[in-house]
Amino acid sequence: MNLKLVPDNTNIGFVRMRYLAFALTVLLTIGSIALLVTKGLNLGVDFKGGLTMEVAFSAPPPLDRLREEVDSLRVGQSALQEFGNARTILIRLPLPDGGQDAVQKVVAKVQADLKAKYGNVSFRRTESVSGKVSGELIRKGALAVLLSMAAVALFTWIRFEWHFGVSTVVALVHDVTVTMGFFALTQLEFDLNVVAAVLTIIGYSLNDKVVIDDRIRENLRKYRSMDIGHIIDLSVNETLPRTVMTSLAMIVALTAMLLLGPDVIFGFTAAMLLGIVVGTYSSIFVSSSLLIALGVKSRAAPVETSRGERVTRRA
């Protein structure tokens, strides 16, 4: 027995809802940009540089007191953040001068002090990144995202037409911007894992959009006298079962990872989960319908008149 979440005779008028979808897309994009400008991203040690320690306590510690105790060690001004739960704390410190030996001395000093005052304390991980390396990672991370989107635009332009390339890039910009706006809103740590998630979202969204665009192109040739709006609705509805099943399978797997997975991949999983939802929405409601605004028209079939002249018949 086959499981069908979307009936075969589904005929949803996505084009009819395009103005509402465009308005929502603009609001989400502008809101995300505003959050990025006003609140900014909570950059991890990968991008800010410094020393980060993930510490697990037996009971939730008072953050103000813990901050005072770490600062009293004279290892630099600390920044504390709960990580996953109230018992796990991220302690961020400026990177000391003197290389790796100095880093090890700071780590040992903090470990000894916290174990003496809090007893059962577990140091799960320690990371250190220099300012030079973090600056290079920011540049390479941003370059990776921009180059991937440029490659997407070039691919869709060559495979289809420029209209499809523009609509795909607009949808991808929306997907990436909303995902980053979510991190600005929640202040979840933005590190290299999240950059990897953003690149994965671009790839997933591209795959979804290419499937729909390919069906639109097939139907443009098949139904030459059909209105472009009807062709887009037909194409999206024909690919809807595949889109829904693929996205739902990803959402179920990512939700399980989000709830049961380790804290270290929480940001990656959250970015992926949001990106799949937003990417599916933009593929169905935004990217395809945007083709109408960009001027894509149905392929009119040439016919001959009684005098042997070839004219174009349109819907």
Look at the structure and give the CATH class of the largest domain: Mainly Alpha
Q: What is the rounded distance between the termini? A: 41 Å
- Residue stretches low in confidence (pLDDT < 50, at least 5 long) are 301-315
- The CATH homology group name of the largest domain: Multidrug efflux transporter AcrB transmembrane domain
CATH architecture of the largest domain: Up-down Bundle
Q: Output the CATH topology of the largest domain.
A: Multidrug efflux transporter AcrB transmembrane fold
How many DSSP helices?
A: 9
Quickly count the domains.
2
Q: What's the gyration radius in Å?
A: 26 Å
Q: Can you tell me about this structure?
A:
This protein is of the alpha+beta class and 315 residues long. The protein has two domains: 189 residues, Multidrug efflux transporter AcrB transmembrane domain (Multidrug efflux transporter AcrB transmembrane fold, Up-down Bundle), CATH 1.20.1640.10; 80 residues, Alpha-Beta Plaits (2-Layer Sandwich). 63% of the residues lie in helices and 14% in strands. The strands form three sheets. A four-stranded antiparallel sheet has the order 3-4-2-5. A two-stranded parallel sheet has the order 1-6. Helix 1 crosses helix 6, helix 5 runs antiparallel to helix 6 and helix 8 packs antiparallel against helix 9. The longest helix is centred in the last third of the chain and has 33 residues. The protein starts with 17 loop residues before the first helix and ends with a strand.
